[in-house]
Specification:
six-stranded mixed sheet, about 625 residues, globular, about 25% strand, Rossmann fold, 5 domains
């Protein structure tokens, strides 16, 4: 028996004069103790589908058609008072960012007690005992009951939020990207927790994600969503063995893997059409590698190709199999026009020796130093021209502090950093500022690192002007060249950052770093917030730029799939120290330390790290 049945759900949002249709005829079901994954790129309508199920649509939004039945009761027929009892009780939702979902001025205990009182009528001692049981169920001790959200780590906040959602004893739990911002080890623990809770409680789970590796570990069935519609519906095994829709195939083709090293990842050009788009024919036609005339003029039906495996594609309708054109569409081409592998120089661009960053611990009225936090503790490595060194490890291990110390944004306590053979320790003022032009950083979130009040042309010209690198008359041509290198149109010069997608903003950030002609790029989680399709484009771009300019990359990440594809060497960091380092293929397949093995075992879809047999 199905716990949740969604039938022909349509959502409309009135935005001024525009009528948006972000969810357009979505149907799926979730059974007892079943996990259904809603998979797709950002903008395809996944989160709005979840909000519609909860009846939490934004201002101007309404359900235009369809029904949602929870255990045979139509939620759209409930009054708001009735829905208030269901919401957070029988049907609960975990949001992507727990920090924004938890009340910052209430303790964990107060927030759990609030949910217990609202949905189960518990108070006093009974509520206190149940709160302890819920925290222990999600792997937190009773000492966290009196903690405020800011006193918890990211993983602990997510666990506390799960405990709150479980307080209402939900029949179905919706998890919207619950692990996106977490370390690989914390992510593995949260996913394992959700799986165990689902099995123990017989709870249905709707997992919203763009991560195919997470889907492979968690889902029983998968709904692939594109432009407001489900375009493929299948069991996990069927989807991963025989993806039918060209969009699904493309999502698999763009994944980085160890056996794709030295090759160019397939790309998925363009972006998901906006909710104000008017469609004639197939919604994926403009991005499909196998599009033909019928796709442009006739909307494909949702066709059952094999038992339980549905696809919204004319090719699947025609003969229940995709043509060889589509099946081969994800083949990878070699980097570079000649397809030849590029050599890595042995000349070090960056050399770090025994680098340490210690922060003093001060106590007492006079704030005397009683100890030190050793954020970075004796780290040594080199990065050569044309080489990528991946620095991996959990949050708090010292990766970002190390990067800041290399750039001299914080002063090291001890050790030496040399760039192109020149020690940086003694450089000050103008000399240091000019040397920094040779080492640039690209941050995880390009939107917060780009000035929203400056146009793209101004952003790219800023570094050139500060260092007087080019005559003023030569800068416009240089800016256009930079835009061309990162694959952006020339008209981007006059536009602001908010007018671009996340992947395009990251390209702008990369172009800004290249504007001062650096020899070293420090890349701090540059793809973690991106869809897999956009991630592939950025990885291809970085590989192209490295080959063209001989750039050295220090790539900070917790995504081991990206490491397996891009990195030449890997350094594993823990507690401020490098605990293991080596060539990427050797380290990922034959780790020497228990901690590295733990990271590899924690990676969702870890088989993707290894070559295909």
């Amino acid at each position: 028996m199905s716990k949740l049945v969604v039938a022909n759900l349509r959502v409309e949002i009135q935005a001024g004069a525009r009528l948006l249709k972000p969810v357009d005829g979505v149907s799926f079901e979730i059974g007892t103790n079943e996990c259904v994954a809603l998979l797709g790129e950002s903008g395809c309508g996944k989160s709005l589908t979840a909000l519609a199920l909860m009846r939490l649509l934004p201002d101007g939004g309404r359900v235009a058609a369809g029904s949602v039945h929870l255990a045979d009761e139509n939620l759209f027929a409930f009054t708001e008072a009735q829905m208030g009892e269901v919401r957070g009780g029988r049907l609960a939702m975990i949001f992507q960012e727990p920090q924004s979902s938890l009340n910052p001025v209430m303790t964990v205990a107060e927030q759990i007690d609030e949910a217990l009182a609202a949905h189960r009528g518990l108070s006093g001692l009974a509520a206190a005992e149940e709160a302890v049981r819920l925290l222990e169920a999600v792997g937190l001790g009773r000492e966290k009951l009196d903690a405020y959200p800011f006193q918890l780590s990211g993983g602990q906040r997510q666990r506390a939020l799960i405990a709150m959602m479980l307080a209402g004893d939900p029949e179905v739990l919706i998890a919207d990207e619950p692990t996106t911002a977490l370390d690989v080890t914390v992510q593995a623990k949260i996913l394992k927790l959700l799986k165990e809770l689902r099995q123990q409680r017989g709870m249905g789970l709707l997992l919203i994600t763009h991560d195919l590796d997470v889907v492979s570990d968690m889902a029983d069935r998968v709904a692939v969503m594109y432009a407001g519609q489900i375009v493929e519906w299948a069991s996990r095994a069927a989807l991963y063995s025989t993806p039918l829709h060209p969009y699904t195939q493309k999502l698999f083709a763009v994944l980085p893997r160890l056996d794709r090293r030295g090759e160019r990842l397939d790309s998925l050009p363009g972006r998901v059409p906006g909710p104000d788009s008017v469609f004639i024919g197939c919604r994926f036609a403009d991005r499909c590698p196998a599009v033909f005339e019928r796709c442009r003029v006739e909307t494909p039906a949702f066709h059952e190709a094999t038992a339980g495996h549905w696809s919204r594609c004319h090719l699947a309708e025609a003969d229940q199999t995709l043509s060889s054109t589509v099946r081969n569409a994800h083949r990878i081409t070699q980097i570079g026009a000649d397809g030849a592998p590029y050599a890595v120089s042995l000349s070090p661009v960056l050399e770090v020796r025994d680098l340490a960053v210690h922060f003093p611990i001060r106590k007492g009225l006079l704030k005397r130093t009683v100890g030190h936090v050793k954020a970075v503790d004796g780290v040594s490595f080199q990065v050569a021209a044309g080489e990528t060194l991946a620095l991996v490890g959990e949050s708090g291990c010292g990766k970002t502090t190390l990067a800041r110390a290399i750039l001299r944004l914080i002063e090291p306590t001890a050790g030496q950093v040399s760039l192109l053979g020149e020690p940086l320790a003694n450089l000050r003022g103008e000399a240091l500022r000019r040397k920094r032009a040779e080492m640039q950083i690209v941050f995880q979130d390009p939107f917060s690192s780009l000035n929203p009040r400056m146009k793209v042309g101004e952003i790219l010209a800023e570094g050139m002007a500060a260092l007087s690198l080019l005559p003023v008359s030569a800068r416009p041509a240089r800016i256009l060249d930079l835009l061309n290198q990162v694959g952006l149109p020339e008209d981007a010069v006059g536009r602001y950052p908010h007018e671009f997608s996340g992947g395009q903003r990251q390209r702008i950030a990369i172009a800004r770093a290249l504007a001062v002609e650096p020899k070293l790029l420090i890349l701090d989680e540059p793809t973690s917030a991106l869809d897999v399709s956009v991630q592939a484009q950025i990885l291809n771009l970085l590989a192209d730029l490295q080959k063209k300019h001989g750039l050295a990359y220090l790539f900070i990440t917790h995504n081991l799939s990206v490491v397996s594809y891009l990195a030449h060497r890997v350094a594993v960091m823990r507690g401020g120290k490098i605990v293991e380092s080596g060539m990427a293929e050797t380290l990922l397949t034959r780790p020497q330390t228990p901690y590295t093995q733990l990271l590899l075992d924690s990676a969702p879809g870890k088989k993707a790290l290894l070559p295909v047999e």
